[in-house]
Every structure is written in C-alpha cells, then in structure tokens.
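Sample log: Dihydrodipicolinate synthase family protein.
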Amino acid sequence: MTTREKPWHGVMVATALPLREDLSVDFDGYAAHCRRLVEQGCDGVVPNGSLGEYQTLTPEERARVVETAAAAIGGDRVMPGVAAYGAAEARRWAEQARDAGCQVVMLLPPNAYRADERAVLAHYREVAKAGLPIVAYNNPYDTKVDLVPSLLAELHAEGLIVGVKEFTGDVRRAYEIAELAPGLEVLIGSDDVVLELALAGATGWVAGYPNALPASCAALYRAAVAGDLATALPLYRTLHPLLRWDARTEFVQAIKLSMDLAGLHGGPCRQPRVPLTAEQDAVVRAATEKALAEGLR
C-alpha cells in the first residue's frame, strides 16, 4: 500500500497507450510512461479506459497492459478498467487485474446495452465476485446508462461499489450523492470540473491531461483539495483550454498531441479514431504551447 489511504485516492491517470507508427503497442514505452507519471507527482494509473483505446486491443494486449503497469509502479497504484459487453467478461478482466496484483478496478455499467436498474445491479453483482473493490464509472454519454445518485446509493448500500468516477460534468451531483450514499467516494471524472468537484469533497481524480502535463496537473489537484484557491485558480485558468478537451470526442487525439509537444510519446491512434482536423490540431497545439511557455510541465 502506498501513502494514500486507499488505492483509488489521489491523481489516478487514465493512461494513454503509446503506439508505434505501425500501431503496435510500445509496452516498454508504456512502462516508462507509468513510472514518469508517479515520479512527477501522480498517484497511480488507470489502464484500459477509453483513453487507453482498450476497445481496439486484443485480449492478449489488454492483459499485458495491466501487467506492464503493475510491474512498473506496483499493483497498488493501478486501477484497471474492466469494462465489457457482458458481466462474465468484465468479471474475468477483474480477476486478471486481481491476479496481476491490483487492489481495485473501475467498472462501467453494460457498455453496449441500454440496461435498466435490474440489469445494472446484476452486472455489478457478478463482477464483485472477483473480490476486488469496484469504482463505478458513470459515463451516460457513451453507455446510454446513467448511474444517477439514487442508483449509486443502491449499489453502495449492497456493498458493490466503493466510489464513482463521475463524468457527467454536473457538479451538483456530488452533493446529492453525499446525501443519499454517505461514505460513497466521488472521483472527478472529467478534467474540466476538477476544481469544482475537488472543492465538493472528491477524494480522487481519474485524469486525462496529466498524461501530458503531470506535475502541473498534480499541483492543481493538491491545491484544489486543500482549498488553496490562490494556487489552484491560476493553474486552472491556464490549463482549462486543454482540460475541456477531455470531454470531447477527440480527447485521445488531443491528449496524445499534447504529449508529443511536451516531449513525451503520444503517437498515433488506432481506428476508428482518425487524426485531428487542421483546425482542431491548431487549437490544441496553441493551448499546449502556451501552457509550456508559461512553465507548466
């Protein structure tokens, strides 16, 4: 166990996956990336999320990503995404994470089926059989299933989840969750509301842009949770033109471009993602270069 109270606390970076020009996975590069993030002040990584392009990986690649991260920084710093179409497959990924030494997993509701409340409960019950704590991931834009506060409270009351990555962008939900499910921890799920949800009591940030600017993003989070607005607000204003890309369709391409500009290896994406348009590239490039020029790293 790290100095964190729980293995899902702090800045948990949803890692981009470095690909070579032939689109093969650079596992050595990924291990180095995980180590660099921790060295720069982040607390751990979340492999096999959308930012890691898990939907495009073979089963062998997906398993090796988790094993690579755990070997690089320790399983207690790794919270793999275990999303799958069905609960049986998601449970197998949770078991694989457990066997790799991880101590928590992150789980979407059924991600290609518009599940009702009964189906969501059954899904989480099955994956919980793997024996690891589960952080739910609420992303109704992609899954078409909204883990509303009342449903989260039911999942928590049954002992199925310990926290939720909240990606709706509706910061008001943090307060309703605290009322309906005391003890259920909220993790910031969208980069562009990190300050608001940190002030609302979030205990972690499943973060995208620390892939490119880890030290500055970690400093922003630490200041925000400490209520140090004199430090947090200037950082937030400088970073926000980049952070808002985390909630856009092209977030993987944008973050990888920023990584490349920061001297890290972002690289290309696998299909169905295609390169940014010239206009999008220019916007991301200008915001990244401005942040770098102001000393953010």
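Observation: The first helix runs from residue 27 to 39.
Observation: The radius of gyration is 18 Å.
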